[in-house]
Amino acid sequence: MSGLKFTADQIQATGSVLNDSTGRPIGQRFRALFTLRNIAGQASIDQISRCLLDDDSALLKHECAYCLGQMQDPLAIPVLNQVLANIGEHPMVRHEAAEALGAIGAQQSLDVLKKYLNDDNKSVAETCQLAISRIEHLLDSTNELVGGDSIAFKSVDPVPHLKRDNDENNNVQRLESMLTDSGNDLFTRYRAMFALRNLNTDESAVALANGLQCPDSALFRHEVAYVLGQMQNPRTVDQLAKVLANFDENEMVRHECAEALGAIATTEAERELNKYIDDRHRVVRESVEVALDMTDYNNSDDFQYANTLSAKTMKEM
Predict the structure, then answer these.
(1) Strands of the chain, DSSP E
(2) Which of 149, 203, 228, 259 is most buried per CB count within 10 Å?
(3) Are 290 and 261 in contact (CB under 8 A)?
(4) According to the model, what pLDDT value does residue 142 have?
(5) What is the secondary structure of 208-231 as a DSSP string?
């Protein structure tokens, strides 16, 4: 939608879909959210911020924080600071607010993020450390720019990926070793993670999926699942389904596995998702609903997922 002009009424109508917590299925609200992300600007930020602060769905609020980070607009920093500071908020939402501050990359966020390096929630603390590392990496002019923001995968990554070497087979083995070694700091392991993603082969996808079994960090496992969703490689369905089926796993990890299966959108992935439409954790239930909506999109003729302003959708509103 870049370069297109949208009226205030169109943005308001899209925001009304996003912020309708009683009459809209969550899949439709997600589509509205991503439409607003693509429109960008102050009016879109205001609509997303309203949902981030007021909604009762941790899943949707966490996605709002994610989108604000992907927009990379400093105008979103105050609301993200507010969410991160709210210790009564769901940790998944606070983690995403911290990651979004890292994605925006403003030097002014360093002091805020440092306040939560010893947060009671491990995932929040780890995210703040990664966000600080990303901002410091961006601010250091001696660092080579190796693509922290992925063009191919249309995302602003929480860390810059590692450069590859010329031996592809050795490269996968080397990166997998770095990824799964809990002796490495998370920044290094994340850099290996995104390097494996960017290789985008069956071998690198399977190597990456092995990170789902690393026991030391739920945040790390959740990011592995997210990246597997970006890759959309059917060879990882079994690993993702196994984690989703583990009721002892952190709900943040299970939710991300569900959304990854929705992105892969094979018949097998859809069959696995349908097993958890009544999961006892709301975050997982809603993720399955969103994932099945994504599966419908991936198996349809729709031009784009964020289609709230399409003629058909506007008519239905």
Answers:
(1) 149-150, 155-156
(2) 228
(3) no
(4) 77
(5) HHGGGG-TT-HHHHHHHHHHHHHH
Q: How far apart are CA 291 and CA 305, in angstroms?
A: 12
Q: Check: CB of residue 6 under 8 Å from CB of residue 39.
A: yes
For residue 288, give the 3-state DSSP assignment.
Answer: helix
pTM: 0.91
**DSSP per-residue codes, 78-136:** HHHHHHHH-TTS-HHHHHHHHHHHHHHT-TTHHHHHHTTTT-SSHHHHHHHHHHHHHHH
**CA torsion angle 159 55 18 63 (round to 10):** 10
Which listed CATH number (3.40.50.300, 3.90.550.10, 1.25.10.10, 3.90.180.10) goes with 1-143? 1.25.10.10
Please tell me what DSSP assigns to residue 150.
Answer: E
CA angle 159, 104, 75 (to 5 degrees): 170
pLDDT of residue 163: 76
Cβ atoms of residues 110 and 132 within 8 Å: yes
Segments making up each domain of the chain, as ranges: 1-143
Rounded CA-CA distance 154/123 in Å is: 24
Give 169 or 102, the one with higher predicted confidence.
102
Tokens of 132: 């600080």
Q: Which of 167, 205, 174, 202 is nearest to 189 (CA)?
A: 174
pLDDT tens by residue, 62-71: 999 999 999 9
Condensed to tens digits (0 to 9), the pLDDT of residues 243-288 reads 999 999 999 999 999 999 999 999 999 999 999 999 999 999 999 9
What are 83's two structure tokens?
Answer: 């969410």
Average model confidence (pLDDT) across the chain: 91
**Helix and strand counts by DSSP (H, E) for the chain:** 17, 2
